[in-house]
Design a protein that fits this description.
alpha/beta; globular
Length: 198
Amino acid sequence: MSKEITVAITGGSGSACARRLLAELAAHPEVGTVNAVMSAAALMVAREELGPPDASPGAMREILGAAGQGRIRWFEESNVGASIASGSHLSHGTVILPCSTGTLGAIAAGSSRNLIHRAAEVALKERRPLLLCVRESPLSLIHIQNMLTVTQAGAVVMPITPAFYSHPRTMDDVVELFVGRVLDHLGLPHQLGRRWGS
């Protein structure tokens, strides 16, 4: 049975990581459908990091998910009636990459104001994998307390940080290794990056 994964993109820096994850999931033989949601703030950041500043939401979705057309199903952030908002909809994991600290705070507080928050809430209550790839530095005490809260609730907090043991030479090397670690936590085999000791 192929896996269904949800990827939410919020307004932290790290659009390149989101793009690479979508491409890897859309091409993965064990993944059937990728549900994707992009917040308004994510669109603004993605325009800055990946594309022209006048890009439309549709164009940015093309840039982010171009490699996986047909397997990536996009949802509007406001569509709280979408399938992924229900616990009865079976899913194999949810990744928020990047996860802004505002999104982290909403999840920690159980305050579902949009589809991204609700998808995370569903993952927690149904005891399904939830990976929160937080991008912020330095961290305030509030951020750290929110990380503790979501971890105690069952999420995995994976800050977007580089691993220097692999001697990355380009930004793509950094992105590849991080996305590989996300795939590890989703239980999906891959050949991305170099593992320690190999």
